[in-house]
Amino acid sequence: MANKSYILLISLIAAFGGLLFGFDIAIFSGTIPFIQPYYNLTEAELGWTGSSLYVGCIIGTLITGYCADRFGRKFPLIIASGIFMLSSVFMGWASSYSMLILWRIIAGIGVGAASMLSPLYIAEVSPAPIRGRMVSVNQLTVVIGILLAYFSNYLLADFENNWRWMFTSGAIPAVVFFVSVFLVPESPRWLINKKRIDDARVVLQKLNGSEREVEEEIRGIQTRMSNDVKGKLTDLIRPGITFIVMLGIAMAVFQQISGANAIFFYAPIIFEKAGMNVQDQLFQQIMIGAINLIFTLVAMQLVDKLGRKKLMLAGSSLMALWLLLVGICYYFNIFEGYILTFFVLAFIATYAATLAPVTWVLISEIFPSKIRGIAVSVATCSLWVACFALAYGFPVLIELLDAPQTFFLFSGICFIYFIILLKFAPETKGKTLEQFETEIIRH
């Protein structure tokens, strides 16, 4: 019988990587009102400051797969936690703008590593009956990390050297992660892959308890590994496969360019355009983070009940509507009361309940088993490239086009995505991966 309390404990420790992932991508937004005048940044320089983190993310995703296969899951998690810890301090107390950028890129390597390592580790230590719930803990901690970053920004806004303390505050959860990750065991699947059967048996006994179940699990892992056939990049352009790979990449990219991350990263700019002061801007971010958390919990209940395609269609169409209404608010200067705030929060709620989690579910399900690993890597790398482009371009875009046109543009992007999903997106609800793979090959 599975030792659920122990599995939950080590999953929560690993999920700290997700929490710090969310914290690092969100903390920058609170520094914007202070760091831009401090360094006298242009809009393009502000965009580079925000997006430099995602250069590191791309590097992190490219090297982490090799490191995880070569050194296991635990050691790279320790390195990632160390990167989070050091980069938080050095970003906060960077002696120059160029050093700030350097440490933003280094921090991004930790973020990119955690985005792959934490869910991978949790999936490999969790028994099948509770694996879905355990992996969903990681997505939940990402959202909690975003909310904690917004709280940190709000509380530190009145401090001297406020933006420096905002960056530095990430070191507190990073230290907890760094100390705790030494307590987790190595992934039993990796140990078996490296022929360290006795070590894997010790770990599995802690996870499962029953000696008979442990031996069955070892034999099952060995059988699956003997049947595994690794895909190559050239397999992605085979007839019948290229389309589903391009669809996966499109889903990853549209999730990033839908406009949600522009709000997560640059909410102070958005609310400043509506005439709000700094304190109000940062409080609005807390509301955004809270709504994001609440509706992520809603999504975890809906995705297996309503189906993937229905949620994605509802999400993309409603997001197009909310962004259109936000653009109208800016166009006609409708800033009285809470109208603008309501539309922004409705947009974030829709995103959190649909595109944010369901994109990851579909990306993990739609690819045939032979190319699943490499296709997910390509889609994830595409996601970070799109994230970089958005983070870099949004401050410039909103300055060049002005706020109404920018939100009308994002609304149009969401509507185009709705059409693509309506015509091409598959429904994987209630189907095993093998059943869906057979359907792909048949079509």
UniProtKB/TrEMBL annotation:
It comes from the Bacteria. The chain crosses the membrane at residues 7-28, 48-68, 75-95, 101-123, 135-157, 163-184, 240-270, 282-299, 311-333, 339-362, 374-394, 406-425. InterPro entries: MFS_dom, MFS_sugar_transport-like, MFS_Sugar_Transporter, MFS_trans_sf, Sugar/inositol_transpt, Sugar_transporter_CS. Residues 10-429 form the Major facilitator superfamily (MFS) profile domain. Residues 197-224 form a coiled coil. It is found in: Membrane. Keywords: Coiled coil, Membrane, Transmembrane, Transmembrane helix, Transport. It is a multi-pass membrane protein. Belongs to the major facilitator superfamily. Sugar transporter (TC 2.A.1.1) family. This is Sugar porter family MFS transporter. It comes from Ohtaekwangia kribbensis.
